[in-house]
Structure formats: structure tokens, C-alpha cells
Amino acid sequence: MTAETQPEVKHRGLITLSIMLATIMQVLDTTIANVALPSMTGDLGASQDTINWVLTSYIVAAAIMTPVTGWLADRVGKRELFLVSIVGFVISSMACGLAWSLPSMVGFRLLQGVFGAAIVPLSQTFLLDINPREKAGQAMALWGAGIMVGPIIGPTLGGWLTESYNWRWVFFINLPIGIVALLGCTAWLPRAARRIRRFDFFGFAMLSLGIGALQLMLDRGAEVDWFSAFEIWIYLFLTLTGFWVFVIHILGADKPFLEPRMFADRNFATGLVFIFVIGIILLASLALLPPMLSRIYGYPVITTGLVMAPRGVGTMISMLIVGRLVRRVDARVLVTMGLALTAASLHLMTGFTPQMDDSLIIWSGVIQGLGLGLVFVPLSTVAFATIDPMFRADATSLFSLVRNIGSSIGISMVTVMLTRNTQINHAELSTFITPYNPMVGQVSPEALQGSAAALSQLDGMVNIQALMISYIDDFQLMMIITLAAMPLALLLRKPDAGAAPVAVHAD
């Protein structure tokens, strides 16, 4: 369908607002509950080990159900699936707020993950459907703002709700947002053509096995000391088996669960690699900063949120600007600039010290927000610019899945490095705490006399320094990953300006 014959979609602004409310509601839930876990422990009769299943159940359920979004959208309709997802997500959120025990909470969180899985990929699909190609960049800027700013404000909002009310309001907050989103989508969201296709149960089962085992391995690894536990080896075997059999299956099946032809599109394939890297950098840094601000600088939850808020502001400013630039500037240039800014911010973060004020934390966050925004919008635009429209629902669900897997791997990676490097750094720094080191006498003369309190204070100082060095090591690793991803921008290609834009199926 050409640009001249493409029908105008009515109420595009209201549709966008309704879709984004649902998207932000779902994205917030990936991080908003984290800070409420300590408060849940006593009320639900859980231990410090078992309470993590509140997070794990949601992550695993969402990860398994995300790839099936495309098939469900074709089978029941994108609009209908989106409405059902919103209703189910809100009801299961209310059930989580009313949970009376750990098993009930885990069950309701599983349902929340099942219903929430389709919201993000379908929201991206709808925004691409209702906007002409020349406005795709602005649409992806709005969508990206919700996707990337949501996890930033989630811990702050969750901390404020938990401190001001109680942890149940972390889930109850979804009710008013969900009702407004549902009413808007019901009134204005256009219907889409359905496409009946056979469900590849074996392919879905193998992919689910691989994804589920991988998420369990990443979540449980730190608790059981990774590969020293037989449990992790089982998860690794199931992960490799599931993914390997799935790949072999879709390459030979007549009607596979995911069409291999999608990956022949160079922009989409490169976009998957990029979004994997973005997932690592975005949520890994968000997982590191709040505990760092609390453990080293003693910031309360609210102050931590205020210090990290400028990061979200930088992201939103960047996305609003790049949404217009993406039509005029080569996407490869924007992506490279964004990665360069992100690497520069991580380089600034390697200069953190326990004695500094919060100015460097704020400015490095702003620069990183600007950089990630410059990457996310052109990447989300170009990745889907040349892919066949019939694969769009599958492609957006895969895009979200890869981003979430990158986030899970990034968080696990930096967490493991932080724990192990802290132990190593503490052991190395402790070798300098001897009576023969003149600096020890200058810092704490009482320690040379064997004072238990002074020795404990010295040990605390060593802990802080060891922890700070470990955080810097993590920031340096993420900087290296960012720099290594920059050459991939050369694989992206600019869409042909004369190519037909995507048809809009609306009635």
C-alpha cells in the first residue's frame, strides 16, 4: 500500500496514550516489586531465600509466553489479545496485592507474567501499524521512553509506596492505570486482520524449555554458588538442549513456531544483537547503582530515586530529539553516537570514589540516558523498517524477549563479578593492614594497640574500598561491551526511501 492510499487512522494520539499507559504499567512491574521484597517476607511467611520466587515466577512466566505472542495475535486478533492481556494483568495484580501466603503470591505472579508478556511486543506492533513510515521514528521514541524510563522510576515508586503505605500498594497501583488504558484501547484501538496458522507445539515446547531453564539458571545461580551446584548443571543442560533442538526444528519444519526467514533481514538480525547489548547495559547498571548508593553512601530509597531520576530525564530528552532526527540522519551515525556517549558515561563511572558527592553520579546518569536514547530509537525503527509485515508480531515479541534475556544475563554477570571481586579485593587490601604500615597508625592509632572497636572500624573501611573497586570493575566491563558493539552499526543498512510503507489493517 502506498503512502498516498494509506488510510488515516482516527484518534492516533488517544490510541498512543492508551497503549503507552498499558506498556508503562507492565514495564514498571519488572522492577517496582524488588524493593518491597523485605516487607513481603514477614507478611507472607517466607524466608530470605524463598521470597525471591516472587520475582523468579514473574520473569520465567513472561519469558516463556513472550514468543507465543505472534501466534496468539494472529489467532485471536491483536486488539482482542491486547485487551485480554490488560484485563488479566490488572486482575492478577490485584490478586498479588491480596496474597495471603508465599504459594498464593507465586501463583498470582505467574499469572501476572503470563498476561503481561504480550503487552510490550503488541504495543510496539500497534505503534508501527497506526503510524506512517515517516513517523515511525517518533512513534518508537514514545515507545522507547516508556520501555527505558519505566525500570528507572520503578524502584523509587516502589520504595515510596512501601514506606508511605505498605507493599500491597505496589500491585494495587496498577488498577487505576489499567482501567484508563483498557477504556482507551477498547474505544479507539483498531481491529486487525486475523491469520489462522497451525500452532507448532513441539517448537514452542523446546523454546520454552530453553528460556525457562536459562532464566532459572540465572536467577538461582548466585544463591547456590553457580556451577558448584548440580542444580545449575541441570539447568545448563536443559538450556542448551532446548535451544539446540528448537533451532534444528525450525530450520526443517514446514510451518515452524518462528519463521527462519525473519532472520534473513539484516537490519532485524543486527537489531537483535544490539538490543541484547542494550538490555545488558540498561538493567545491569540499574541493578548496580541503587545498592551502591545505599551500601557505600548510605542513601535512603527516596534519595536514591532522586539521584537516579536525571538518568530518566536524559533518556526522555534524547528520545524526543532523536525521534525527529531519525528521518534526516543516518541511523548508523545515531547508533554510533549513542554508544559512544554510553561508553563515555561508563568511563566516568569508573572514577567513582566513596568520598565524592552525588554530582558525578547525576551527570554520568544523564549522559548515559542520552546515549541509550540515541541508540534505542533508531535501532527500534530500522530493525523493523524492512521486515515483512506478516512477521511483525513475531518479530516484536522476539525483540522484547532478546532484550529481557540480555537484561537477565547482564544482571547475573555483574552481580557475580561484584560478589567475587569484593572478596578478592578485600583479601588483597587486608594484607596492607599490618603494624608495619605507617598509614595504619596515622588512620587509627588505637588499632595498633589491639582495640577491637578500632580494628572493626578498619575492617569496615576495607570493605567499603573493596566494594567500590568491585563496582568500578563492573562499570569497566560494561564499557568494554559497549565499545565492542560499536562496529555492529556498520551492518545496519538504510531503508530504501522509495519502499512501500507498511499497510495498516484497520476497520
TrEMBL record:
Species of the source: Cereibacter changlensis JA139
Coiled-coil residue windows: none
Membrane topology: Multi-pass membrane protein
Protein name (record): EmrB/QacA family drug resistance transporter
Annotated family: Belongs to the major facilitator superfamily. EmrB family.
Domain Major facilitator superfamily (MFS) profile span(s) in chain numbering: 15-497
TM regions (residue ranges): 12-33, 53-73, 80-100, 106-128, 140-161, 167-189, 201-218, 230-251, 272-290, 296-321, 333-354, 360-386, 398-418, 475-492
Keyword annotations of the record: Cell membrane, Membrane, Transmembrane, Transmembrane helix, Transport
Alphabetical list of Pfam families matching this protein: MFS_1
Location(s) in or outside the cell: Cell membrane
Domain of life: Bacteria
Principal location class: membrane
A single cellular component GO annotation: plasma membrane
GO molecular function, one term: transmembrane transporter activity
